[in-house]
Amino acid sequence: MRYVAFLGSINVGGNRLLMEDLRRVLRYEDFDDVETVVASGNVLFTHAEGPSEGIAEKLAWTVNEEFDIESFVAVRTRDELAATIAENPFAEDGEDNFVHTMFLADEPGEFAVKSLVIDHEGRGNERIAAGTKALHVDYADGVARSKLTGDFIQRRLGLSGTARNMRSMKRILAKMDELDA
One Pfam match, by short name (predicted)? Predict the structure, then answer.
């Protein structure tokens, strides 16, 4: 089964990791056909079919053990990634580099999402919507100036996550389709 892993905290905040080194290590841990897309912790691979959570834990453990980097890892199949892109309500009218999805460890609770929206009210023009094990955000004025940070979101939702913009997700999905062709 082909998967994509989104690793958080890679090549940001001093957590430097060469994708070549990551690919090499993963090949020794029963990950096959390992490829990376962009140097920010997007890994395509094939692996024996299993629960995404278990594969994510294995990846996170490997990155911590081999590189001393604690990283949240979200693993999705090709179809799960396509569904996440399709369910993003801002994909049609937002700019691909401003529309993000934060892949989460679990489903965001309805109450937690409503609290996040209320807590962020008046702090920016971002649009926020819950997704399947995801939170979709349109950073209409740009990510760099936003007060809606990953830490703010994770604290409010009580869930770990890592975000990617629509441009990156579409690129990754296209790469998955190319590899499976």
Answer: DUF1697
Task: Give the HSE-up count for residue 24: Cα atoms under 13 Å, Cβ half-sphere.
Answer: 7
Give 42-98 pLDDT, tens digit per residue: 999 999 888 888 999 999 999 999 999 999 999 999 999 999 999 999 999 999 999
Q: How far apart are CA 30 and CA 113, in angstroms?
A: 37
CA-based nearest residue to 116, from 148, 89, 156, 88: 156
**Position of tokens 């990510």?**
143
Exposure string (b/e) for 13-22, b if CB count within 10 Å is 16 or more? eebebebeeb
Give the residue carrying structure tokens 């799960």: 80
Amino acid at 24: R
Phi, psi (deg, nearest 5) at residue 48 = -55, 135
Domain with CATH 3.30.70.1280 in the chain: 2-80
Q: Say whether domain 2-80 belongs to CATH 3.40.190.10.
A: no
Q: Which ranges in the chain belong to alpha helices (H)?
A: 19-27, 52-67, 78-87, 110-120, 150-157, 166-180
Q: Cα–Cα–Cα angle for 76, 148, 124, nearest 5°?
A: 130
Q: Which fold has domain 89-169?
A: Alpha-Beta Plaits (3.30.70)
pTM of the model: 0.93
**What DSSP state is assigned to residue 105?**
S
